[in-house]
Structures are given as structure tokens and as C-alpha cells.
Amino acid sequence: MASAGSQSAVLPLDQLVDGQRLRGTSILFIVLAALAMASDGYDLATTGYLQPEVLKQSHLARTALVPAFSAGIIGMAVGGPLLGLLGDRYGRKPMVIAGLCAIALLDLIGIRVFGGVMATGTGLAGLALLRFCTGVAVGGVFPNVMALIAELTPRTARARVLVIVALGVPLGIAIPGLVANRLVPTYGWQAILVVGSLMPLVIAVAVAALLPESIKFLVERGGREAQALRLARRLRPDLPMEEGSRLSLPTAGKVTRGSMRPLFAGALGLVTPMLWVSQAANQMANFFSLTWLPTLLQAGGASTSTAGGTAALFSLGGLGAGVLLLLVIDRLGVVPLVAMFLVGAPLVAGMTSTGLPPGLHALVIAGAGFCVTGIQIGLTALLGLLYPTAIRSVGTGWTQAAGRVGGLAAPLVGGLLLGLHVRPERLTLAPAALLVIGGVACIVLMAACRRQFGSFRVSEFPLVENAARVPVDPLAGTI
């Protein structure tokens, strides 16, 4: 690093970011990112609690809402890569704010749309369109939040920080259950959407005011040197930086943005497909639980408030998994995820068992959430670690899109099995089987990481520059 007295000192950005200590400023960024993820998680869970209310008041068949809720998952599959690509091109922060504001507006509109369906039993096409648009917004927040926070965090703490931020998702997923348990009996089902509208709006304002743009994005994009230097001073007040100082990136970080080719180049050619399979399998189990668990519990005789409280144990179990991952992910990398896949399969299979005592049934649901949500948190952290800056948002977005394919299967499979009059306690065998497949893919991923890094610890896989520089239509395959 050049001397501080030089008028044009060149500061290597990786050294600047990786050399920082986590202080008050960094903690503020982490909290805001986790809150943005909590808003995402909240909306993911709302359909599971609104579905029984719609069915109860409209007298529609259980399978009638499958197209509408499937449209929401399709929207997430579109929003992840699309807004991830836009985040790589135009900035992570604007995409996060736009996504949060869109969620707030659409949940407010949802009060009228859901009310119309409940009152008349019609308007399902409008509900499907609403859920699709909401899904686009939800899917787009996720990759940009994770990319932004990964690029503001030192490498030595990045895995733990990404786990903390990802904990926002199960926290958000648990809140609708608590709202259903506490507020719905007094204020009606509308309380779920009112809270879902206010949360992202408040968080969007806080993000706009307090969360900076990714410093690595600012430097790579160019033309924002003064803004990048101001942020560098906030991150590293211990370093003297004069006005003439410049921030530099390694040459390998300068690649064609929007291209999918680097995701499959070199060692990433194996890592990316295994991430996609693992994500799809886990998302099937996750969305199956979010979409059907409250309904299946009510089918077993539970009230709306009781079903909400019991189903919330699924996400609360996931918070416990996040705490565990904080302690072990740095040293063990992918290993805990393999264990969670294989242990989670029988627990998910038993979530709707009617022969269990209430206390044991609650432990099974919490244990299933511990594994399924823990896998999601771990995979989220790995995406921020394995992909380099230039393809981090688009890599995360496409992995999330692959996960949504598995998530899309959840309402479809659940509706199909209900249509075939399969008993509720047997419905969960389908997501349990997918978790076994995901465990196998995760084992392959673990082997690839160990071969690359020589230990269970993981880091960024290198870009293959020749592949990265081949021009590719950036919008090809996005939708």
C-alpha cells in the first residue's frame, strides 16, 4: 500500500475491506440487512396463514388456491435472477429499496384482493397476479441484500455475518404465526397483511437512510470514486486517506456483468449445479411447510390461533440452527448442512403425524424447522462465500431461482395429493424424499469444496477469465 502522504495513493480494496474490525458502523449494516431479510421471510409465510382463512370463508376446494400461490413462487423464480442481474449492473441498494417498497404496496392491495375472494369465491386470477408480482419483489430483495453485506464485510467474519443476516428469514417467517395467534382473533385476518405492509416500508426507509451501497460495486462500476472513498473512511477510520487516494480491485474481478457463463466455468461447473439441486430440494420442503402446514394442522382439528402458534415452531427451530451455524460454519463449511439434510428428512416426514403426544409433536416440528431452515441459512451464507464479487448477485439470484423450482413443486404436489385423497399425515413424505436427494448433492458439494480448499473451510472459487469475458446477452434466460 502506498504511503499516506502520496497524492495518488492506491489502496487495494480487498485489503481495505478484509482488514477492518467489526465496529458500530458494521453492526448497524448487519442489523439493517437482517431486517430486510426478515421482511422477505414474513411475506414468504403469509400464504400459509391466509390460505385456511380464504378456504373457510369462501368455501372453495382445498386445491383452488394452488395456481395463485404457485404464481407467487414463479414470481420469486423470476425476481431472483432478474433483480440480481439489475443489482450487478445498477447497484444492490436501489434494488433492495425497490423490492421492499413493492412488497409494502402489494400487501396493502392484497387486503382488498383477498377480501374479494373470501366474500365471493371469485377473483382468483387477480389473486394469482398479485402473488406473482409480490414474488418478484421478494425474490429480488434476497440476492441483493446478501451480495451487499458480503461486500462490506471482512473475509474473516463473512461466514458468521452472512449467517446472522440470513437469520432474518426464519425470524420473519415466525412473525405471521405470532400475528395469527395474537392479533387475528381480535382484528381479523387483515392484521397479517397490515403488518406485512408496514414492516417492509419502515425497513426500506431505514435502508435508504443508513445502509450504503456495496463499496466493491462502487469501485468496479467506476465514476463514483468520491462516494467510494467516503465509505472507505467509514469502514476504516484507522487508515489515513487523502482526497487523491484511489481504491483498486484485483484484475480478476473485472468481468463482463450479466453473463451466466462464469457460473459454470472451471470448478464452479460442479459447484453451481450442486448448489441448485441442494437449494431446490430444500425449498420444496420449506415451501411445503409454509404453504400446507397450518392448513394440515387445522384439518387435524386445530384452531386458527393454535395452528399458527404450532406452525411458528418450525421457524423458531430454524433460529436455533442459525445459532449453531454461527459457531461451526467457519470451521466445518458444508458438513453441518449434510447432517441437517439427512436428519431433517425423517423429521419432516413426521410433522403431520396424528399419533404423537402434543409435546413430542411440537418437538418434531421444531426439529424439522431446525434442519430445513438451518439448511437455507447455511446455503445462503455459502452463496456469499463461494461466488466472487463480479457474479455474486447473479449467482445468488440464479441459485434462488433454481430453489424456487423446488418451491413451486410444493403447492402443486400438495394439491395433487389432496386431490387424490391422500391422508394429511402422509403428505410430508414427498418433501422428506427430496431432502435425501438434496443431502446427496450436498455431499458432492462438500467434496468439491474440500478438493478446492484442502479443508472443510470454504472461500471464493476463482473466476475463469476467458469464460467470463465471452459476451453473452445479459437478459438471455433471465425469465
What distance separates the N and C termini? 44 Å
Shape descriptor reads: globular
Helical stretch tally:
19
Strand order of the largest sheet: 1-2
Major sheet characteristics: 2 strands, parallel
If you compute it from the alpha carbons, what radius of gyration comes out, rounded to the nearest whole angstrom?
22 Å
- N-to-C SSE string, H for helix and E for strand: EHHHHHHHHHHHEHHHHHHHH
Report on this model:
This protein is mainly alpha-helical and 479 residues long. It has 19 helices and 2 strands. The chain has a two-stranded parallel sheet with strand order 1-2. Helix 12 runs antiparallel to helix 13 (304-332), helix 12 runs antiparallel to helix 18 (429-453) and helix 13 crosses helix 15. The protein is globular, with a radius of gyration of 22 Å. The protein starts with 9 loop residues before the first strand and ends in an 11-residue tail after the last helix. The relative contact order is 0.16.
Pick out its properties.
globular; 19 helices; disordered C terminus; 2 strands; mainly alpha; single chain
Give a nutshell description of this structure.
By secondary structure, the chain is an all-alpha fold. Helix content is 75%, strand content 1%. The two termini are 44 Å apart.
Task: Note the topology.
Elements: E1 10-12, H1 13-18, H2 24-58, H3 66-90, H4 92-120, H5 124-150, H6 155-166, H7 168-182, H8 184-187, H9 190-210, H10 215-221, H11 225-235, E2 246-248, H12 268-299, H13 304-332, H14 335-349, H15 358-386, H16 392-419, H17 424-427, H18 429-453, H19 465-468
Parallel strand pairs: 1-2
Helix pairs in contact: 2-4, 2-5, 2-6, 2-7, 2-9, 2-12, 3-4, 3-5, 3-16, 4-5, 4-9, 5-16, 6-13, 6-15, 7-13, 10-11, 12-13, 12-15, 12-16, 12-18, 13-15, 14-15, 14-18, 15-16
